[in-house]
Amino acid sequence: MKVALVTGASGTIGRAIAQTLAAEGWTLALHYNRGEEAARELARSLQTQGQRAEIFAADLRNQAAILQMVLNIREQLGPITALINNAGVARDALLHKMELAQWQEVLDVHLNAAYFLCQQVLPDMFSGNFGRIINIASIVGQQGRRGQANYAAAKAALFALTKSLALETAQYQISVNAICPPFVLSEMSQAAYERYKERILSSIPRGFPGQGQDVANLTAFLCRPENGYITGQIFNADCRPTTW
């Protein structure tokens, strides 16, 4: 059985990823923290379509909660064969005004949780000689952004984690890649979009925001068995020019 864990499945991008993977035959473990009702609604929608999906709660800042979630998924659905590290949080502030708690929470959710989750799912992937890990990153990790030093640092570190883990796992038919989404209207980005709409749209060559489906399509492609040769890569699911 193909079991995919999508963290942050109740959000815009996570929901699109879950729906697309389910359509390709994956059993879905839908993680949420605060968005329980949205996660339940997504699970019900997938189940109505004849697809298997269950929800699992965990605070990704808490290692014990992560470990328990993985155990629960293994018991209910089986070993995880695809991990989509998608959950995110923003705690923006200029660095000289940033509280340690703001710095730490962003690194915990974006980077440390990815470390803990990868560590927990890898043994089953090793024994099954198959696995897919997709880290949802950001062009902010490539370019930086004023007021988001914590977010940029976490995403840049996620690039390095992706490349290093890909080297460690390639011989086991496990692929590890990262995807940088376009600017997508979501719960996390809505306030910024309303405040800086003209500036944001002027930076997008197509003139309009991307969609969660843009990320979901690429995620599904990378999760397919026939595409396992691709590993250690950073993909920009975007139309904006990027620089390193």
TrEMBL record:
It holds the Pfam family adh_short. SUPFAM superfamilies: NAD(P)-binding Rossmann-fold domains. PROSITE patterns: ADH_SHORT (PS00061). InterPro entries: KR_dom, NAD(P)-bd_dom_sf, Sc_DH/Rdtase_CS, SDR, SDR_fam. The keyword Methyltransferase does not apply. One of its GO terms (molecular function) is oxidoreductase activity. The keyword Membrane does not apply. Belongs to the short-chain dehydrogenases/reductases (SDR) family. NCBIfam families: PRK12826.1-2. This is 3-oxoacyl-[acyl-carrier protein] reductase. It comes from Carboxydocella sporoproducens DSM 16521.
